[in-house]
Amino acid sequence: MGNQTYGYARVSTEQQNLDRQIDALTGYGVDRLYNEKMTGTRKDRPELKKMLERLTEGDTVVVESLSRLGRSTRDLLELTELFEKKGVHLISLKEKIDTSSSTGRLLFTLMSAIAQFERDVIADRTREGLNSARARGHLGGRPKVPEDTIRKAIGIYHTGQYSIKEIEQLTGVKKSTLYRYLEGESNMRCDMKKK
Questions:
Q1: pLDDT in tens, the chain (195 residues)
Q2: DSSP class of 84
Q3: I want to staple 34 with a disulfide (CB 3.0 to 4.6 A). Which of 2, 49, 51, 105 is the partner?
Q4: Is 116 within a domain?
Q5: CB-side exposure of 128: number of CA atoms within 13 Å?
Q6: β-pair partners for 36
Q7: What are the phi and psi torsion angles at 145 (to 5°)?
Q8: Active-site annotation, residues
Q9: From the centroid of its chain, how far is CA 156?
Q10: CB proximity list for 167: less than 8 A, separation 6 or greater
């Protein structure tokens, strides 16, 4: 049975700085620290995986904030369930949650329920808004990007001098939209060759 304290820190991009989280975790007194720079939406977080593999009963995981640990509320709940099965405690410094105490467990359960409620309310409002818009003859969804803006983005792309991110910033055309049009352009060229 272990009684090690592991710290986990994460930022979403290379440009963001881990120092604040690392300072908070080392200030708490963690025995070992795992950190990574990658978006929480990615499933393959190697440092988190390494930490999870090391955890044994009696260990504690400390995070600066719950948002650093989970990609979503669901992901966070899955991780805490895993911790519970392994007999591992979770401490979040920002939210002042400590699952080794009955109050901490209760608070975490309440926060989870509130987060789920918020998601349900947002989903209901979105559905109601779309139904209301359809009833008035509007189709809903995102507004269409003007054709000339898309042509401009494609032109910039073909220069080969700008990254997709830079093109997004310059034109406001999202990556997915640009790729969709580029794919259409490529398919059109293939069709013309066949003729």
A1: 569 999 999 988 777 889 999 999 999 999 999 999 876 556 678 999 999 999 999 999 999 998 888 877 777 877 887 888 898 999 999 988 898 888 887 876 776 677 677 778 888 888 888 887 778 776 666 667 788 888 888 888 888 888 888 888 888 888 888 888 888 776 655 555 555
A2: H
A3: 51
A4: no
A5: 6
A6: 10
A7: -80, 130
A8: 12
A9: 29
A10: 153, 156, 157, 173, 178
104 shares a domain with 177:
no
Token pair recorded at residue 51: 């930490």
Helix residue ranges, H only, 55-174? 66-69, 73-86, 102-135, 147-159, 164-171
Domain of residue 102, residue span: 5-111
Angle between helices 164-171 and 147-159 (to 10 degrees): 150
Is 22 inside a domain boundary? yes
Tokens of 62: 């400390």
pTM across the whole model: 0.56
Alpha carbon distance 17, 13 (integer Å): 9
Q: Are both 87 and 164 inside the same structural domain?
A: no
Is the CB of residue 168 less than 8 Å from the CB of residue 174? yes
Q: Could you tell me whether strands 32-37 and 89-92 are parallel, antiparallel, or unpaired per DSSP bridges? A: unpaired
